[in-house]
Records
---
Amino acid sequence: MANANHPTSASGRAPSERGVIARFAAAYGQEIVIFFAMIALFVIVTAINPRFISPENLNTIFSGNAYIAVAAIGMAMIIITGHIDVSVGALIGVLATISGTLAVSGYPVWVALIVPVFVGMAVNAVIGVMVAYARIPSIVVTLGMLSILRGGLITVTGGAWISGLPPEFLIAQAKPLGVPAPIYFMVALTLLAAFWMRYSEFGRSLYAIGGNPEAARASGIPIERRTVMVFVIHGAFAGLATMLFATQLQVIQSTVPPNLELTVITAAVIGGVSILGGTGTVIGSTLAAILFAAIGSALIFTNVSAYWLRAVIGVLILVTVMADMIRRNRQGRA
Amino acid sequence: MPETVQPFVSLTGATKTFGGITVLKAVDFDVRPGEVHALLGENGAGKSTLIKIISGLYVPDGGTIRIGGETVTLSSTRDASRRGIATVYQELLLFPEMTIAENIFLGNYPKTAWGGIDWPEARRRARALLDSLDSPELDIDRKVASLSVAQRQRVEIAKALSRDARVLIMDEPTASLAEADVQRLMEVVRALRQRGVGIIYVSHRMPEIFALADRVTVLRDGELIGTRDIGEVTEATLVAMMVGRSIDQLFPKPEPIIGETLLEVENLVSGKLVKGLSFSVRKGEILGIAGLVGSGRTETALTLFGITPAESGRIRIAGKEVTIRSPREARDLGIAYVPEDRGLQGLVKSMTIRQNVSMASIDRLSRGIFIRFAEEAARAVNAVKRFGIRARAGIEQPVGQLSGGNQQKVVIAKWLETAPRILILDEPTRGVDVGAKSEIHAIMGELARTGVAIIMISSELPEVLGMSDRVLVMNNGHLVSIIDRADANAESVGAAMTVAKKSKDAA
C-alpha cells in the first residue's frame, strides 16, 4: 500500500481519502497500462521503421479495426455481467450479408445499414431469454447459436461474395474532415458506452450482477430482465460493428475473419474486463482492440512473421488473467 | 485422563493474520490420544482458523506445531493426513456419484503387486471399517448421493480411519443431525476414543460437550481464554469464558416502544421447511426466531422476502393483504432482509462501500437513468460515520477488503437506505467480532425505537434472549411456541427448540 508509511497511519487513524491521482490509477489501472504499452510500442517500432506512423498505416490500424472495437464494447458489457458470447463473429457475418444483400437489391442505404442492427438485437434477445429464463449457461447457448448462424450463412450464400455495392453504401471509406469515419464511430460509441456504464443505474446493475448475482437479486435488481437487455444491447453493437465491417471494402465475403469472436473476447479481457464478471470498462476493451491491431502491424513493419501475432496475444491474455486472479485473491482474503 | 499422557498434536503460540487482521493470537492447544477435546467459542472466535491450521489448510504466521513430539510444518491437508490428522468437515466433502467404498479409499487405494487398485481388498476393508463404526446397514456399493447426512458423516469418519487417523477433527458434527442421529454419533465418538484416537470436537451444544468431552478449550476474539478439564467447569462458567462478560451487560437493550401490528402471517407454506406458519410482528418490536439448523428459520425469511415465494398462506402488512413474488416487490413493500451469508447474498465484494450501500436503493437515487453521484457519495459517507465502518480508503474501498464486522455493517447500511418498515436480520452477528457485535445490537435497538418491526433469526441463544421482545421457536418447519421476553430463558427456549424432532432422516 502506497500510504503504509504515512505518518497518520502510525497513530492508528488511516487517511480516509486518497489523492485524486491514486484513485484514478486504482480505477483505471488496466486502461493506463494498455495506453502506455501502446505509446511504447509506437515509439519503439517507429524508431526501427519510421513508416510505421505514416498516415496510411495509422489509417489501417485505427480505421480498419474500429469494427472490432465496437463489437468489443458489447462484449465487454456481456462479460461484465458474468456471461460470454462466442457467436458474435458468426452474427456479424450474417448481418454483413443481410446488409450487403439489401444494398445491392436497391433498398435505400439507410435501410441496408439499420436493418442489421435490429436483426442483431432480435437474435441476441433469443440468446438472452434462453440464458436468463431457461438458465442455460451462455457459453452453451452461444455455441449453439454460432453453429446455427455459421451453417445457415454458408447454406444460404453458398460461400459466394457480394459485389457491386453502391458507392454511397461504403460509409467506412468516407473521411469527413480528413479523418476516416470509423474512427468517429469508434470514439463516439466508446465514450457513450463508457458514460452509460459508469453513470447509469443500468450500467451499475450489470457490475452488480456480474460481481454476485445472488446479492444483486436480493438487492431488488431484476436480474433476468437486465440479462436479456444486455444481450439485446450487445446485439445492437454487433449491428453497429457490421455497419463498419460491411462497408469498408467493395465486396462482402460471407466468410468473416475467422476467430473474430475470439479476437473480440480477447479485446475485452485484455482491456481489463474480468472473465469472472463484475469489473472492467469499455474504454479498456477499445484500447485493447487498437493495441492488437497495432501489434499486428508492428510485426509486419519490423519484418517479424505475422504468425507471431496470435502467440503474442495469447501471452497477453494469460498475463492479464493471471493479474486479475492475483488481484481477486487479495481482495477476497480480508 | 492421566496427566502423563503425552499430547499427540500440540500447538504453541499459533498466530494467523489475514489482511492486517489478526484472527488467532498466540494460541496454545493440544490433543492427547484417546481424549475428546472440545473447542468452544463464539462465531469468529478463531475456532475454524485453529482447526484449519491443524488440518494443514492454513500455514500459521507464527508458532510451532509438534506431532508426536516432533516439530513439523504442515503445508497441505495431504501433509496433515499423512501425519495422522483427519477432518470431518461441516459441509461433507464426498463425491455423490461414487460408491461408499470408492469414496473411502479415494486417493489412498490399496494397491496390488503390479500397482493397480486392489478392489477386493478395498471392499473388504471398507466393510470392516463400517462394521467397526456400528454401521452394518451401509452397503459399500451404494452411491453416496443416496445417503442421509448422518450416513455420509459415518462414511467420512470411515475415510479418516482408513488413513490411520490418530487425531480426528469434527467441526460441528451435529449441526444438521436429528436427535436420534446425534445419539448414534456420540456412540461412534466414544468408540473412537476407546481406540485411542484423539478427537477435536467443535460444537456449540453444551449438553454434547458435557456428555463427551474430557477437556474443553475456549477461544474468544482469536485469543486463548483457557483450557480446563470438564469436571472443573459448568455451563455458566463456559458461557462466561466465551462472551467475557455476563449477558445483561452484553445486550444493552433500550426499553421498547411497541406500536400496532405491522406484519401478520397466516398459514405460510413454502417448500419443505415452512409448513403453515402464523405469527405477527408489531411496530417497534424485536421478534427473535430460534431453532436448530434446518428448522426452517432462514426459509421463513426467504419466503417473506420473495426469494422463495410462498406457495400458500396470507401475508398482511399494516392490515393490507399483499403478495410477495420477488425481492424487489418485498423491498417496495418496505421489507428488508440482511441475509445469513453476507458473502453469498449480501455483498458484491468487488464493488466499493459506496456502490454496495446504494445497491438496494439505486433506482431511488437516480434522476432519469443517471445515478446522482454526489448524493450517493454523501449517503455512503453518512453510513460509514453512523455505523462506524472502518475502511482504510473510505467509501471507495472494495468491501471484499473489509473485516467481517464491517462487511456486515455495510449490508445493514444498504438495507436501511431503503427506509424499511420491516427489517429481517438473519444471523446478524455471525462471524463478527465482539465489538462490532454490540454496535450492531445497539443499531437494532435504536431502529426498533423508531418504529421499525424487526425479525431477528439467530443461532446464538444469548443473543436471542438478550435482544428479543418475544421469541418464536421453530422446529422442523413448524412453530413450536412464542415465548414472551419475561418467560424466555435458556431452559424454556432450548426445550422448545429440541422437542421431539421427527427424525425423518434418521438412518
---
Amino acid sequence: MPSLGAGMEAGTLVEWLRKPGDAIAHGDIIAVVETEKGAIEVEVFETGILEKLLVEPGSKVPVGTPLASIRAEGEAAVVTPVVAVDAGPVAVEAPPLTVEAPPVAAPEHVPPPPSAVPLASPAARKLAQERGIDLSALTGTGAGGAIVVSDVEGHADVQGPTDVEGQAAKPAASAAADLGPMRRAIAAAMARSKREIPHYYLSHSMDMSAATAWLNAYNAQRLPEQRLLMGALQLKAVALALLDYGEFNGFYEDGKFQPSSSIHTGLAISIRGGGLAAPAIHDVDKLPLARLMTQMRELVGRVRNGRFHSSEISDPTVTVSNLGDRGVEALLPVIYPPQVAIIGFGAALPRPWAVGDALAVRPIVQVSLAGDHRANDGHRGALLLLRIDKLMQEPGVL
Amino acid sequence: MTVMTYREAMREAIREAMLADTRVFLMGEDVGHYGGSYAVSKGLLEEFGPGRVRDTPLSESAFTGIGIGAAMGGMRPIVELMTCNFSLLALDQIMNNAATIRHMSGGQFNVPVVIRMATGGGRQLAAQHSHSLEGWFAHIPGLRVLTPATVEDARWMLKPALDDPDPVLIFENALLYNDSADIAGEPTCDIDRAVVRREGGDVSLITYGGSLGKVLAAAEQLAAVSISAEVIDLRVLRPLDEAAILTSVAKTRRAVIVDEGWRSGSISAEIMARIVEGGFWTLDAPLARVCSAEVPIPYAAHLEAAALPSVERIVSAARAVLGR
C-alpha cells in the first residue's frame, strides 16, 4: 500500500485490475485503492509477472503492507509463500529498476505516517471505526489528552453534512472520491501547514497583453480541442522559472530542505460537490505546451471523476493554484506540506496600466507566492515572480 | 415507620428467623451472655434460651465445623465469627468442607449454614483486627458472599441467606452497626443482585459494604463540580452481578472501584478484569480503583485514616478518570 500523501496511514484496496499470471510492465495500472483523497490508481515500477495478490478487495491495510508480489523477468518463481513483512512506506513503489525518467520525487519524499498511534479510548476507537472517522484528525480532551467518545461525536457533528454531500457527489462506480475523508485530509494538511510553516506572501501585477495576443493567434489556427488555455502558459512559465529558483521546488522534511531535481507541478483542482486535490503533472518544464494542455485536460477530467494515479497524488514538488476563472483578482494560497511554495494566479482583469508616460487599459493578472520561510526568502521569491512575469511577456519561448 | 440501627436490623432478622423456624440457632463467641461482641444478639439468650443461642469456646475451627455438621444434619445454623480476622482459624472448615461437600458428595449433602462476621477497619484496632477479607472468600466456588451496606440489607438479607441450600457468608462492616434508617415493613431485597444507589452518567463508582457511605459522599462532592457519578452497591461479591456492572459502565464508559481490601489480588482486581473482558469497547478511560494501602492497617488514627479509602481519594480518582 503506497503512501499517497501526507498523513495517510491506510488505504482500502477497491479492485484488482490485473490478475495473477499477467505480464505487467513499468507504468501499468494494476489496482485501485481508496484513500482519503479518493480512488487512486496504483502503478507498478517493475516489469515482470504479477505472481500473487496478497490483499483482498475491500480490505483496508496500513501503508507499507505489500499488496502483491511481482516476479521480475528471469527470476525464479517463488515457491514459499510470501510473508507480509513491513517494507516501509514504499512497498509497491520500490525504486524503479528501469532507467527511464526516474521519478525522483517518488513517495520517499512523503512524510512517513505518524509512528505513534493517537491515544484513544476503546469506546472512541469503536465509534470512530463505525463512523469511518480517522482518529489522527481528532484532538483528545480526555484524561492525558486521550481521544474520548465525545471527541468523536463532536467531530461527527461537524462532518455530517459534508459526508452527505460527498455521498451525493459519488458517481455510480463506487471507486470515487468520498468527500468526508477528503475534507478531513484537506483539514489535516492545511492545519499542519499553518501550524508548521512560516508563510510569507508576495504578489505582483503582470500585464498579460503579450500572452493574450500570442494565445489568441495560436488558438485561431486550431480546432477547439487543440487550443491552449492561459493556465497552461502560466503553469509552464512557473516551471521554467523554477529551474533557476530551486529553493522553491522540493520538500522540507526532518528539519531540512531537500530540493527536487524534477519539477512536478501540483495543480489545485476543485472537485464538484466540494473539496479539492492537487495532483502533479510530471516534468512540466520539459513538456511542450500542447502536451501540457492535453495532460491538464485529462488530469482535470480524471480528478473530477475521483480517479488519480498514485504517483500524481503523492509527489508534486510545488503547487500552482489558479482562481482566475472564478474572477477573483488575487489569492494568498496555503502551502501543501511538505512542499515549500505555492504560486497563485488571479483573473486577468482590465486595469489602468502605465505604458510609458500614458495610461492604457491592459489585462492584468496578480501572481502571488506563498513561501516557506524555512526554505526560502522573500528576496528570491520576488525574483521568482519577476521571472514568471518576464516569461509571460515572451510567450513564444514557453 | 420503624427506625432502627444496622445492629438492631441484624438482631431483628435473627429473631424473625428463629421465631419462624425451630431449626435455626445462633452459635459463636460471646453471642449469649455477653450479647455479642457488637451487641447484635443482645437479649436473644433470654428470649430463646441457651439451647438456641450458644456460647462457644474460642475455637473457630471447632464451632464452625459443628455448624457445618449441624447444617448437613438438617439444622439451619447461624455461626457468628467475631471478626473476619478470626475466620482464618476456620478457613479450613469454610473452604475445604462448607464449600465442597455438596460437590464431593455428589449432591447427597448440602450445607445450609450462614456464617456472619464483622469486617473492616477504621476503629483503631490495629493490624490484627482491621482486615477486609471478604474479597478472599469471594474467590471460593461453593460459597455465596454477601456484604450488606445498608440497614435495609442488614434487615432483609438473612432470610434468603438461610433459605439458600448452600453456605452463605455475611460480612458486616463494623462501622455500620450504629447507622440507622427507617425500615419499610416489606422485605425489599434478594441476595443475587447489585443495586444502583445513585444514578449518574459520567462515571460508575462501584463499591460494597463499608465503603458505600464514602462513595455516596464522594458522588455528592463530584456533583458539585458537575460530574454525575453513578454509585453501584455490589451487595453480593460472589457470584458477582456482572450484568449490573457492565450495564452501568456501558452507560458511563468509566469506572472507579472502591474496595477496602488491599489492591493486589483483590475483588476490585476481579471487577476490573470483568469490565475489561465484557466491556472493553465501551470504555472511555482507563479503569481506576481506590483500595486500602498495602500495609498492615496501622493503629495510629491518622495513619489508619490515610491507609483506608477516603472520600477525597475517591473524588480525586473519579476526577482523574474524567481528566477534570
---
Amino acid sequence: MLGGFLAWAVQFTVIYGVTSTVCARGWADTTVLGAGIVPFTVAGTTLVAAVAAAAFLVHALRKHRRLQSADASVTDVFLIQGAVLISAFSIAAILWHGLPALILPACS
Amino acid sequence: MDLKSTRPRPSRALDPLLACTRWLALVSGVPVLAGCSGIQSALDPAGNDAYEIYLLTIVMTVGGTLIFVGVTALLLYAIFSRPEQRAWLGTRRTIVYGGLAFPIVTLTFLLPYGLTVMRDTDVPTADALQIEVIGEQFWWRVRYPAEQGQPEVTTANEVALPIGRRVTVTVTAADVIHSFWIPNLAGKIDMIPGRVNRFSFTVERPGVYRGVCAEFCGDQHALMAFDVLAMEDAEFSAWRAAQAAPAREPVTPFLERGRELFRSGGCGNCHAIRGTEANGQFGPDLTHVGSRRTIGAGQFPNNIGTLGGWIANTQHLKPGVRMPSYGMLTGEDLRAIAGYLESLK
C-alpha cells in the first residue's frame, strides 16, 4: 500500500542529499555523461522512482480488479483503493519534485 | 538631477498587459491590491523582471481566489441543499476529477510556470553594471567597483541605476541577517554575514523608488530603507563622476568652521570624507552626503535642520543605531556642522 510513498521518500532523500553535498563541496561543474552531476542525478533518480511508483500503481490496479470479481471484504477493497490513490499521487509528486533541478541552474 | 515620482509613466511595452491584469485583479475580488502603486510597490513594476513577478502574483492570486470561491460554494451547496440534489458531490467521478485530477493538473501547470519565472528573472550578463551592497545595523553601504575606466564609488543609503542596462547586485551583511528588496524592480534577496548572494535585474522606467530591508534585523528594522534613483545612462555617468570626486572645499567661514568642528569632534574616526583626513569606515561615507535625498537610511529629508537634529539626538530619532547623540553641542556648532555636511553635494 505504501510503495508509492516509499519510492517518493527514496527519491526525496537521494536528490536532496546529492544536491546539498554537491553544492556544499563546490562540485556543481562536475559532469556525468555530458550532463551536470545535479541534473543527471535528479533526472535519473526521478525516472527510477516514477517507474517504481507506476509499477506499484499497476500492481494495485490489477489487485483491485481481482478483488471486484471476488467476494472481498470492505476492508480489503478500501486498502487496495488506498494503494491505487497513493501510487497515483506519488507519481505526480515524484515528477513535481524532480522538475526544479531541470529548470533552475544547480546551486543557484 | 531632475527625478520625480514614478507612477504616471508606465512603460509603453507593459501597458496592455498591465491593464489586462489589473482588470483581472478587479473582477477577481482584489481591488485593493490592484489600486496599489507608487515608489514602493511590487504592484507597480518598473522593469520586465518585476513585471514577470507581478504577473505570477496576479495569476496565483486570481487563480487561488477563484478556486477558493468555487470550493466554498460547493461546501455551502453540500451543507444547505437537499440530499437528492447534492448526491452527485459524493460520486466517485466527482471525487476523482474534482479532488484529484483538477489539483494535479493545476499544480502541474503552475509549478513549471513559477520555476520558469524564477529562472528568467535573475539572469546575469557579462556587461552588467556591478553594485555591491552591505547591510549594516541599520543602514546600507553601497559600492560601485571600478569598471571601464570609471573609478570606484562608495556611497550609502542610496542606489543609482541606469535604465535599460542589466544590473547585478552583490549583497552580504556585516552584522546580522538583512534582506535587500526594491519592490518595483525585483524580488528580495537575503544578506547573510559571511555569505555572498547575487541577483540581476533591469530598470526600464526612470524615477525614484524606495528599497527596504525585508528581514527583521533588530530594533530599527522598520526604519531601514534606501532611495533608488533610476536615470538615463548619460545622467548616470554624470552622477557616478560626481560621486567619485573628492569632497568640496568649504566656501564660507561658517562652513569652514563646520569642517573644523567635524575634524576636532572625532567624526572622522567613523565617517570618511574623501579629500579630507576623515577616513573612518565604521559609519556611512559622507563625501557627498549633501547630494542624497534622505538621511537616516531613508527616514528624513536631507537638509540642515534634519542633519542638525540627527547629530544632536540620533538615539531619539532612531534608538539603537551605533552613532551616539551629540546633544552637548551648542546650537551654533550644530548648525555649522550640519551646514558643512549639507554643502557636500
---
Amino acid sequence: METLTDEKIELLTETANNIRQSIIGSLLEARSGHTAGPLGMSDIFTALYFHILRHDPARPDWPDRDRLVLSNGHICPVYYATLAHAGYFPVAELKTLRRFGSRLQGHPHREFLPYLETSSGPLGSGLSQACGMALADRMDHGLTSDRYIYALLSDGELEEGNTWEAVMLAGKYGLSNLITIIDRNGIQIDGFTKDIMPLEPLAEKFDSFNWHVVEIDGHNFEEIVAAVGEAQAVFGRPTVIIAHTIPGRGVKAFERQYEWHGKPPSEEEGKKALAELRTLNGKIKSEND
Amino acid sequence: MINKTQKLNPKLFDLQIEQEAIRDGFGRGLVTAGETNEQVVALCADLTESTRIEAFAKKFPDRFIQVGVAEQNLVTVASGLATMGKIPFAASYAMFSPGRNWEQIRTTICYNNVPVKIVGAHAGVSVGPDGGTHQAIEDMALMRVLPRMTVVVPADSLEAEKATLALADSGGPAYIRLARNKSAVITTEASPFELGRAEVLFDSDEPAALIIACGQMVYFSLLAAKKLEAEGVAVSVINLHTIKPLDKATVIKYARQAGAVVTVEEHQVAGGMGGAVAEMLAAEAPVPVEFLGIQDQFGQSGEPGELLEHYSLGVKDIIMAVKKVIERKNV
C-alpha cells in the first residue's frame, strides 16, 4: 500500500461523497433498497477501492488481484456505486439498480455483474467463502503469498451460526491472508443489535477464537488504512477490523436510525439528502476530527 | 434378458456376487481424481472415515480441509475454494449435507455457479441401526429442485468410482448420493458410464413394463426382472444413475415401448427419482406409473435388509408393482 497523504485523504473524502450521492441517486430510481448500511460503509468502500485493494478495473479477471467478498449483500448500492466510480462500469448504469434486465440486481449476483467475486444476500455465509478463497490461495502460493482476501460483514449477521463456524476455521488455519471488516453500526432491521441480540463483548469473542482484533472509527481514512496495514503485517492469525460506523452517515436525517435499514428515501427526502451531500462536498471528516 | 453391451457382472444372478459399499467406490474414485487433477480438493465435516474421504486426506493432506462438525461451513468454504479454481468435494452424511445446509448450497454454489461436488453419504434407510435421524430420504428432492445441480445416484461401488471421476470433470455443481451398507457389485470395470445417460441393463423385444431404478434398487430390480421373465412377464430395466439432467430420450423410448412404468428408489416418493420421471412422462409420454419408495414416513433402526423389506422395497414388492401396473395398462 502506498502512503496515505493529506492530499489523498482529501481525494478519498471527495470520492466517498460522490459515492454517497450515487447511492441516493440509485435508490431514488429504484424506489426500494437499503439506505443506512450503504451510506455508513461508503468511507470503507472508498478506502478499499481507491487506496487499499490490488485491483485493476481494466482487468477484472486478473488472477493476482485481491479478493473482496461482500457478505451482507443488501448494502450493494455502495458496492455498485464504488465499482462504477472506480471505473468498472459507467456511473450512469447505477440508475438501473433493481430494474428488470439490470446487471445491478437487488442483491449482488456474480453472473449478472462479473466484477463481483461472489453472489450474496442470505446472511452469514460470506466469511466462509472468504475462508475458502484464503485456503485456496495458501494451497497455490503458500505462506509467502502477498494477495489478500477481504471479507465485509455486517454486525447483525454475526447472529448467524454459519459466521462462527467460519470464525473457528479461520482461527484454526491461522489465515493471516484473510482480513475481515465488520460494519459495527449497531442496527439491524428490527432494531438496535443490542436489543435484538447483544454481540458484546465482540472484540473479546474474536480474540478468544485466536484472531487479531483492531477497532477503528470506520469513517476515518487514516484509521481504516492503518488497520489494514496492521492486519497485513500480522502473521499466523486472521485479523478482524471492527469498524464503528454511523448508519446513514452523511445525511443527518438518516443517521443512527434503524428505520433506515431497509427503505429508500422518498423523492423529497432524496433531494434534501443530495443537497446536503453536495454542500458538504469536500468537507466531510471523521467524527473524531 | 440381460443387455450384453452393458458388460454386467457375470455373477449377477449368483448368490455369491461380490459385495462392496457404494461409498468405497467413491473413496477410490476421489483418490484417482486427485492424482489426475491437482485442482481437486476435499473437505469433510468430521466424518472422514465413514464418508471414505480418508484415503484422499491421507494422500493429499495439503488439499484436504477438516471443517469440524459444521455443515454450513463445509459447503460455503467449498464455494470459496471453487471460485479460486479448485474442484472441491465436500463430504458429510446426506442427512446433514444437504439436509442442514440447503440454502448455502443454493446461494453460494448453484446461484453462484461454481463446481462444488456435494457428497451425501449414508443416504437411505439402508443406513440401518442408526435410525431415522440418520436416514436421509429427502435429499434427492432437495437437490434436484436446484437449477444447475447435477444429481447422481450410483448403482454400485464401481459406478460410484466412475461417477466421481466424471463429476471431477463436469464443470458445475453436483450432488452424489452414497449408501453405507455393502451391496452387490452389478457392473464391471468395462461397463459403460456417462453422466446424464440412462443405462438399459435388462431388455426385451416386447416388454410389458419398464422398471426404472437408482442406487442399490437397481440390483433388486434386476432380480425382479429375472424372476418375472421366468414367469413369462417380459420387462426392461433402466439404471437411472443420473436423476438430473434426466435422459429424456431413453426414458421416453422405453416407456413408450413398454406402455407402463415402475420406479424404485430408496427415497421419499414425493420429490424423488420417480417424481422426476413422472413429471417428464406426464408431459411427453403419459403411461401408468407405480412408485416404489418411502411413502411419507420416517425411517427407523434395523438391519438394511429388514428395513428395505419393511418399506416395501424388496424384490417381491417390485414384482407386485410390475403386475399391478400391467393390470392398470390393460384397463
